[in-house]
Design goal:
The protein is an alpha+beta fold. It has three domains: about 190 residues, Barwin-like endoglucanases, CATH 2.40.40; about 130 residues, Ribosomal Protein L25, Chain P, CATH 2.40.240.50; about 35 residues, no CATH class. Helices cover about 25% and strands about 25% of the residues. The strands form three sheets. The chain has a six-stranded mixed β-barrel. Strands 5-9-4-10-11-12 form a six-stranded mixed β-sheet, with helices on one face. The longest helix has 15 residues. The protein is globular. About 35% of the residues are buried. This is peptidoglycan lytic exotransglycosylase. It comes from Rhizobium aethiopicum. Pfam families: 3D, MltA.
C-alpha cells in the first residue's frame, strides 16, 4: 500500500460475515461491467489509484462477466463469491465511512438569452489547460489540475466562480444554453451533469468537461457554521429553501464555492440511460458510486452498508453491491462515496437528504487479493 493510502487498512472478511450480502441482487451490474471492459480494452484504461489496484487487476472479472447472464440473485452473488475476496476499508482514525448521493437534474433552458433565461452553462474555454507536476506554477498547490494559459505564455489560476459570474467569459461564444435560475446552474455544477429541456421540447444532456481548478467548498457547511441552518437539518432541499428566502445573499453564498464547472453536450441515445460520467459508461441508478479516484480505480465493486439510510430501499437499510464509476471534488477519502439516485426531480428528492455513516467493502479479484493479506 502506498504512503498516500496509509491512513487506512484493508481487513479481509468473508462473504458469510458480510451483513446484507445474501439479500442483495446485483444482477443489473453485469451490463455495466461489460461496458467497463470495452472502455478499458477498446478505448482507454482507467488510471490506477494509490491503493494500487489497476484496471488490469480488474479485467479478468470483467472478461468473465462478458457472457454471463445470472438466472437468479443467488447466481449473481455466486459469480462474485467465486472470483473475489471482500475487504473492509478501515480508517486508521477509527471513524466510519460516509455516503451522500447525487442525481442528474432536469433544467428548463433556452438556446438564446432573454429577460427570463439569463444564466448560462459554459463549455470549456480554450485558455483553460490541464496542469501536472511539469507545468503547474509554484503558487498553485497540487490540487490544481487546471489553470489559465495567458497570451504571453504564463500559466496561472483560472478566474473563480465570482469572476465568471461577473462576466469574465461573456462574449466568447461558450454558452451551451441559458437557465432561469443561477441556483439551478449552481446545483448542476455540484451534480456534474444535467438533462436540458429546451423550449421546443427537445431533451439534451450536458456532462462534466473540466473545471476552473479551485477547490470545492460546500455552501451547506458555510450555512451551518454561520448558524443559518441546523446541522441536523442540512440537505439540498434545506439549502435551496434558505437561498429562496434570502435572494439578496445568494451571490455571496454561492461565491463561497470558488469551484466552477464547464460542460460538454452529450447525445441522448437512450433517454432511460443515466449520464456518462468519469468512467465513460452510463451510470446505473442505485448501483453507481462516485469515489475518490486518487485512491480507488474505476470499475471495482464496492458493497455499501448504511443501516441508517432507509429511504432509498423502501424503509430497509441500504445494503448494495455497487460499481465505482464516478468521482467528485467533495468525494475525498478511502471510505467516502456518492450514490447516484437517477435523473429528475424525484431522484433529486432522494439524493438531497443522504448523509449517512456507511461501511465500505471492496471486492478484489482473487489474483490481486493476495497482495493485501
Amino acid at each position: 500500500m502506498s504512503d498516500q493510502a496509509s491512513d487506512f487498512v484493508l481487513q479481509a472478511i468473508s462473504f458469510d460475515n458480510l451483513e446484507g450480502w445474501k439479500d442483495d441482487d446485483p444482477s443489473s451490474l453485469f451490463e455495466v461491467m461489460r461496458r467497463c471492459r470495452r472502455q478499458i480494452t477498446d478505448v482507454k484504461s482507467y488510471r490506477t489509484g494509490s491503493l494500487g489496484l489497476s484496471a488490469e487487476d480488474l479485467l479478468p472479472l470483467l472478461v468473465d462477466a462478458e457472457n454471463f447472464t445470472p438466472s437468479s440473485p443467488a447466481v449473481a452473488r455466486a459469480f462474485f463469491e467465486t472470483r473475489c475476496r471482500p475487504f473492509l476499508i478501515r480508517r486508521q482514525d477509527g471513524k466510519s465511512g460516509f455516503v451522500t448521493a447525487f442525481y442528474e437534474p432536469e433544467v428548463e433552458v433556452s438556446d438564446r438569452p432573454n429577460e427570463l433565461f439569463r444564466f448560462p452553462f459554459y463549455s470549456r474555454p480554450n485558455d483553460l489547460i490541464d496542469l501536472d507536476d511539469g507545468n503547474r506554477p509554484a503558487e498553485l498547490d497540487g490540487s490544481y489540475v487546471f489553470g489559465r494559459l495567458h497570451d504571453d505564455g504564463r500559466i496561472g489560476a483560472y478566474p473563480d466562480r465570482r469572476e465568471i459570474d461577473q462576466g469574465f467569459l461573456a462574449g466568447r461564444g461558450l454558452e451551451i444554453a441559458w437557465a432561469k435560475s443561477k441556483v439551478d446552474v449552481f446545483f448542476v455544477h455540484v451534480q456534474g451533469a444535467a438533462r436540458l429541456r429546451h423550449r421546443d421540447g427537445r431533451i439534451g444532456r450536458i456532462t462534466y468537461a473540466a473545471k476552473a481548478g479551485h477547490p470545492f467548498s460546500a455552501i451547506g457547511k458555510l450555512l451551518i457554521e454561520r448558524g443559518e441552518i441546523d446541522r441536523a437539518e442540512i440537505s439540498m432541499q434545506s439549502i435551496r429553501a434558505w437561498l429562496a428566502r434570502n435572494p439578496e445573499r445568494v451571490d455571496k453564498v454561492l461565491w463561497h464555492n470558488r469551484s466552477y464547472i464547464f460542460f460538454r453536450e452529450a447525445a441522448v441515445a437512450d433517454p432511460e440511460a443515466g449520464p456518462i460520467a468519469a468512467a465513460k459508461v452510463p451510470l446505473l441508478p442505485g448501483r453507481s458510486l462516485a469515489v475518490d479516484r486518487m485512491i480507488h480505480t474505476f470499475g471495482f465493486p464496492f458493497f455499501i452498508r448504511a443501516d441508517s439510510l432507509t429511504h432509498l430501499d423502501h424503509g430497509r437499510p441500504f445494503r448494495r453491491l455497487m460499481l465505482a464509476l464516478d468521482t467528485g471534488s467533495a468525494i475525498v477519502g478511502p471510505a467516502r462515496g456518492d450514490i447516484f439516485t437517477g435523473s429528475g426531480d424525484l431522484a433529486g428528492e432522494r439524493a438531497g437528504t443522504v448523509r449517512n455513516d456507511a461501511d465500505f467493502v471492496i471486492l478484489i479479484p482473487k489474483a490481486a487479493a493476495g497482495r493485501f493479506d
